[in-house]
Amino acid sequence: MAEPLTIDERPSDDAMRRVQFTHLGGPEVLEMVPLKLPALEPGHVRVAIHVIGVNRFEALFRRDHYVIAPTLPATLGVEAVGTVVDTAPDVDGFAMGQRVAILPIQSPTVGTGTYATHADVPVGALVPVPADRSDEQEAATWMAGLQAYTLATKVPIGAGDAVIVTAATSSVGTALIQIARDFGATVIATTRTAARKPELLALGADHAIATDDEDLAAVVAAITAGRGATVVYDTVGGPLLAQLITATAPFGHVFCYGAQTSPDIRAARVDVPLVALDRKSVAFVDLFELVESPDRLAAAKAYIADAGRRGALNIGIDRVLDFDDVREAHRILDTGRLAGKLLLRVARP
């Protein structure tokens, strides 16, 4: 577990760096550049970054395939864990030397961007890190936890409800499995191949389906005695979405939060027979709607912190790379082959 930086360990401006890109493309467009931050704005703190959470949408953003277009030169990063090294005069509740998690409450970056050795962020994006939680645990938790909580609370779920989670070996998929189970629902998790089904059961799913080999709707019907799933949480899209709608119970809900089958999220489409939507609803849900409701965001923070303490929410880590290996991290993102959260660790001076 990282120890807090002391105030006299604050580096000079020439020691600060961040990742940026000046043109669109693959991981090769990412470059490490010197960083000089301006005076802190009111309501902001400066954080020395320890560990950065890396997300698939950042790879889309790098190619201008995200819902928001980059303004070049562009930086990246919406989440991290680090130590407060400076605060604006009006800031209360956070002090220099305090370890904090930066939450993904803005898009496509939070503050000056967390793909950096240092970032200036609004206090509304911070939560204290408990002493018994490692940097890596916290950096793996918040994006996945907040996205999953947003989805799992769109409509109430509990005992007697069956929910489907697609791409369930991802960090958000893992969080959805665990939160839905914590709420009392029966979880049916999907992956493409049978080889990964044991992983889903180990993560807490009640049932696992390999969509390349099994008839999803038929298996769900067998599990639910013909009723279908109350709620579906899908990040795959494409042809699978039609199967998921078929597997949804009357008056059930399909919540989409991604489209892994489309290289450009803006090009993703829903193509299903109109009659398949009879007494069913389909909606796209983005994480950042949570920020628009202070009460929901406060409830999400409280639940995720409590679930972490109870061991009900535990996001696995695929691997931790050095900050200087950010291009390699994005090559991994482009493959889509992850089992858990991908993190970057910033070397301490």
Outline:
The chain has 349 residues and is an alpha/beta fold. It has helices at 56-62, 135-152, 171-182, 197-203, 216-223, 239-246, 294-310, 326-335; strands spanning 17-21, 31-34, 44-54, 74-75, 80-87, 99-102, 118-122, 126-128, 162-165, 186-191, 207-210, 229-234, 248-256, 280-284, 317-322, 341-345.
Describe this structure as you would to a colleague.
Keywords: NADP, Oxidoreductase. It comes from Mycolicibacterium tokaiense. The chain has 2 domains: 17-142 and 316-345, Alpha-Beta Complex (Quinone Oxidoreductase, Chain A, domain 1); 155-284, Rossmann fold, CATH 3.40.50.720. The protein has helices at residues 56-62, 135-152, 171-182, 197-203, 216-223, 239-246, 294-310, 326-335, and strands at residues 17-21, 31-34, 44-54, 74-75, 80-87, 99-102, 118-122, 126-128, 162-165, 186-191, 207-210, 229-234, 248-256, 280-284, 317-322, 341-345. Helix 2 (135-152) packs across helix 3 and helix 2 packs across helix 7. With 349 residues, the protein is of the alpha/beta class.
